Amino acid sequence: MGKYTAALVPLKASIARVRVETSNVRTYYVKLPDGLELPKPGQFNMLYVHGVGEVPISVSDLDEESRVVAHTVRFVGSVTKTFELLREGDLIGFRGPYGIGWPMDAAYGKNIVLVAGGIGLPPLRPVIREVARNRSAVGKLIILYGARTPEDLMFSYEYGDYESIPNTEFYVTVDKPSEGWRGNVGVVTNLIKHVDVDPSESYAFICGPEIMMKFAVRELLKRGFKTNKIYLSLERRMKCGVGLCGHCQMGPYFVCKHGPVFPLWFISRYFWVDQI
Ligand SMILES: Cc1cc2nc3c(=O)[nH]c(=O)nc-3n(C[C@H](O)[C@H](O)[C@H](O)COP(=O)(O)OP(=O)(O)OC[C@H]3O[C@@H](n4cnc5c(N)ncnc54)[C@H](O)[C@@H]3O)c2cc1C
Ligand code: FES
User: Fold this and answer.
1) Nearest CA to ligand 1 atom 19
2) For the chain, how big is the Rg over CA atoms in Å?
3) 10-residue stretch averages of pLDDT, the chain, 276 residues long
4) What is the distance in A from the centroid of ligand 2 to the CA of 238?
5) Between 6 and which of 1, 2, 22, 197 could a Cys-Cys bridge form, CB atoms 3.0 to 4.6 Å apart?
6) Strands of the 68-74 sheet, one edge to the other
7) Is 108 exposed, middle or buried (0-12, 13-18, 19+ CB in 10 A)?
8) Which ligand has its closest atom nearest to the C-alpha of 243?
9) What is the number of the ligand closest to the CA of 248?
């Protein structure tokens, strides 16, 4: 089998655990099939539900020792909605890891600002884990996270862990508070005022709905971040995941292969154009 053909054949993978996150989001812990590389922060895998279809899903956590990889899936359409039926012990098709993730090597020695909206936190969570594990490698870590309502917040059970990482600030906000919510209210970009770092010594990693990323980029540019220090994780419809089919094309780039994480300066001609 050639390199590309092999890359398109899903391997069987077993679901080790399912965790309910919100009413329409669950995390699937999957044992990485033998022979596949461990994913890096920001990479994704193609998950195949037998007889239904395949979707790209980012890695939201990784246990290197047991080779169990987490994927946090929001049920939005024909494939992802069938994830709701999957249980521990079920088999799915699995291929990956694919794409270029967050530039951790470049960010070592600098500050990192994470801006996440909604289901944008899962692809950034491996960055938080990596910084926590290797704390002296990075300067300040600032995490800004927003969701529509308190019920939509991802991973609220581990916010205490984020806050206890040394030299880390964690801010969370919701668009619409529910009764009993005592935290910030408003869009996540309002939190950018808390970014108190030298932009020339810092990287910003952004993931969330495209409109939120546009506003976040504008705010960060106003605060002096340069386009080579702002990285975004983009979502496009995907089929092959390996740069063959063209489904995910954006200008001259294939999001699956040249991304999904791009520095802003790479894509600024396309990023501001709607529906491209
Ligand atoms: C690199 C990459 C990483 C991704 N990581 C994750 C992840 O970690 N977790 C996750 O839940 N999703 C992630 N996605 C998005 C996920 O792949 C899509 O939600 C999925 O492919 C939708 O397929 P479907 O068959 O369920 O929906 P479809 O049947 O294709 O779509 C049905 C309806 O849902 C809408 N829809 C489709 N995609 C989205 C979307 N992303 N948001 C809102 N509405 C949508 C469509 O417009 C349509 O109305 C990622 C996508 C990419 C490209
Ligand atoms: S999904 Fe086929 S080229 Fe990107």
Assistant:
1) 76
2) 18
3) 70 97 98 94 98 97 96 97 97 97 97 97 98 96 98 97 97 95 95 93 97 96 96 96 95 96 93 75
4) 5
5) 1
6) 53-58, 44-49, 91-98, 11-22, 25-31, 68-74, 61-63
7) middle
8) 2
9) 2
